[in-house]
Each structure stands twice: as structure tokens, then as C-alpha cells.
Amino acid sequence: RVKMSAEEILVHAVKLGKNFCLYFDELECDALCKERTLHRVLRNVKSQLLVVRPDLNVAAFEDVTDQEMQSGNGMHFSIHCYKTTTPLAGMPVAFSVQVEDKSYYMCCERERGEMIVRFKEGEVPKEIPGESNIIFFKKTFTSCCSKAFKFEYSMERGMFLAFEEEGCLRKLILKKLSKDEVDETMKISL
């Protein structure tokens, strides 16, 4: 440890390997490790619940009756929180949901030049060694609205989960947010 201007800084030993490559000893890797899981419903600004329908390949915010909510089919999400070595980006999370007896995880894929939100059958991994198309950074929606959040896609900064009106559906999408803009379609309550 070295003391500089009243601030303590941890110093690590380094060594030179083959071809004079620089190696650091005892540093944490950038892998994401699952820390805990929250079980929640996701609501938009209109208090509608996010419902996943894998058979129709759609996830949309819908008005849901109490009876439908009791069944919980495709509505009760597991939010998997991961530990990270870079906390400034926000809490890394992945989403999964049960539909009937199957588990589906949320991911993003590029299709015809556009980023699409998908739900694929399978489990969320306990560890993610590097970048992943299932990770979103959970951030408070605004400084005065700490109970609502926005979720930034980890592989494309500035792209957030949001909803878009498509006919009678409020479909889950990824949407670009310009700096310092407040977009109510990105506001998600847990």
C-alpha cells in the first residue's frame, strides 16, 4: 500500500513473462458471477405487466386481471443480479421467466440490422466470462424516481429496454436514448 495525499491506494506486483508481456498478480477477472435473484413482475409507466408469450414469439406490456396474475404464466420474472468489477455502469442483471413448465431467458440479437429482444428456452448461467447478450445494466430511472428503473443493454451503450406501440400491443423493444433525455417508455417498475 502506498499513501498519497490522504488517499490510500492498493498497489499490486507485476511481472514480465515471455516476450516481455506484462502480467498482474492477484487481480480479479472481469467475469460476472451470479450473486442473488429477485422475483418480480415488471410494470411500465401505464401500470401494465410485461407478459412473455414464447409460442407467439412476443413479449408485451398488457393489462392483466387479478385472476391472470395469480396464474403468473409468463409474468413473474427472475431478475438475476451479478457481481461486477465495474459497478459504475450499473447493476448487471439478466432476466428469466417461467412459462408453463419451461424456463426462458431474455437476450438481444441483431436481425436485419436492428436489435431485437428475444426470449429463448434455457437457464441463465451462474458465471459469464466476458460480454454477453443477456446482460442489462439496471439504473435508477431518474434521480427523483428511485422506485423505477431503466435497463441499458450491456453490449450497446445508450440502448435501453422500452415499449413501442404496435397495433394494440405495447411490445418490448430496445430503444436508443440520447444523452440527458427522459423517455417514459423506458420506465420499468419492479
From TrEMBL:
Record key words, sorted: Cytokine, Cytoplasm, Secreted
Gene Ontology MF terms in the entry: cytokine activity
GO cellular component, one term: cytoplasm
Domain of life from the UniProt record: Eukaryota
Family per similarity comment: Belongs to the IL-1 family.
Self-association and partners: Forms a ternary complex with ligand-binding receptor subunit IL18R1 and signaling receptor subunit IL18RAP at the plasma membrane. Mature IL18 first binds to IL18R1 forming a low affinity binary complex, which then interacts with IL18RAP to form a high affinity ternary complex that signals inside the cell. Interacts with cargo receptor TMED10; the interaction mediates the translocation from the cytoplasm into the ERGIC (endoplasmic reticulum-Golgi intermediate compartment) and thereby secretion.
Name used for this protein in its record: Interleukin-18
Organism field: Cnemophilus loriae (Loria's bird-of-paradise)
Gene: Il18
